[in-house]
Amino acid sequence: MLKALGIFIGLILVLFTLGSVRQGLNDAFLSVTHLQYYPLRDMRRTVAFVPQHGVIRPPDAESVPVQGKDLTHGLEGIDLATRLGDQLVNPTAADDSSIARGERKFMHTCVPCHGPNLAGDGPVAALFMPPPDLLAEATRQRKDGYIFSYMRHGGAVMPSYGAQVTPEEAWDVVNFIRHMQKSSPR
Question: From 1.25.40.10, 1.20.120.80, 1.10.760.10, 1.25.40.180, which CATH number describes the 80-183 domain?
C-alpha cells in the first residue's frame, strides 16, 4: 500500500513537472472553473457601430469650416469645378513669394502625376490615365476658380487634394501655373 501510494505521488509529480502536460492540465482546470463572459464583452460577436443601422449626417449649414472659407455649400454635384470656376476669384496676388510658395507645393504634391515640366508626364501618369498638360491651350482657357476647385475637390480623373492642399496653398499653385503658362506656353 505504501509502495503504491509512493508510485502514485511520484507519477503526479512527474506529470506536473512536464511543461506541456502541466499547461494542458492548467487549461483544463481554467475551462472548468472559468465563468462565462457577458455576451457584449465578446469581441468576436460584438459590433460597436453597425453602419447600416446608424445615420451619419453631414455637417449642418451653420457649421464653421476648420481650414478656412470654402464656398461649396449648396453646390454639390459632379461638375463642381465648372460651377465654382465662375464664382471663385483668386484673392492671392501673383507676386514672387506666392509663385515661389506655389512652386514648392507643386513640386511636393503635384509632380508625381503632372511632372516637373507640367506636361502630364510624371512617374505615376504611366500607370493611370495621364493628366492634362497644364501649359497647353485648353488649360490656359480655364478660369482660376476652376483650377482651384479641381485641385481641392477633384474631378473626373483627378482625386480630391483638399486634405493635402489648403485653400491658400491652392491659390499659390494656381499663381505658379499661370506664371509658367505665361513664361513658357505650349
Answer: 1.10.760.10
